[in-house]
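User: Hey, my collaborator sent me this sequence without any context and asked if I could get a structure. I don't really work with proteins. Can you help?
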Amino acid sequence: MSDGADLTGRRAAVVTCSTRAAQGVYPDRGGALIVEALRGWGMEVAEPRVVPDGPAVADALAAALADGPDLLLTTGGTGLTPTDGTPEATRPLLDREVPGLAEALRSRGVAQGVPTAVLSRGLAGLAGRTLVVNLPGSSGGVRDALAVLAEVLPHALDQVRGGDH
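Assistant: No problem. I've predicted the 3D structure and written it out in structure-token form, which is a compact way to encode the shape of the chain:
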């Protein structure tokens, strides 16, 4: 996943929102894919924090933001099941939403032949000077989202720091 973005010197955090991954029912594949891509793009990023769906998601997001990363990516919890609450945990932390980015992630999934990508309720926006993006929980959805992010993150993060259009 090293193709695309050059984000050397930027810091990121990753939160995986999955009750089953947090319980060890299966490994956290989505978070691992994200970390691999971000490191390939030159970013400094720790291993993902894996938390169960529910109140732990909001706590993990707040803790990650307190560290002041340039980018915070989540994976999981964006669907329609009763426990999917990542967008609800994310929205109160955002100062400004970036709806076009969230829409581009869904569109990429559909373009890859996954019509159910439109069911993702993931958000994107700014929490202070941190770009926050909710990615889907599936490995395929994560890969599609990373392809979009590779195209736009350098420019987006430059703008957050005050760069020109």
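In plain terms: The longest strand covers residues 11-17. You can pass these tokens on to your collaborator as they are.
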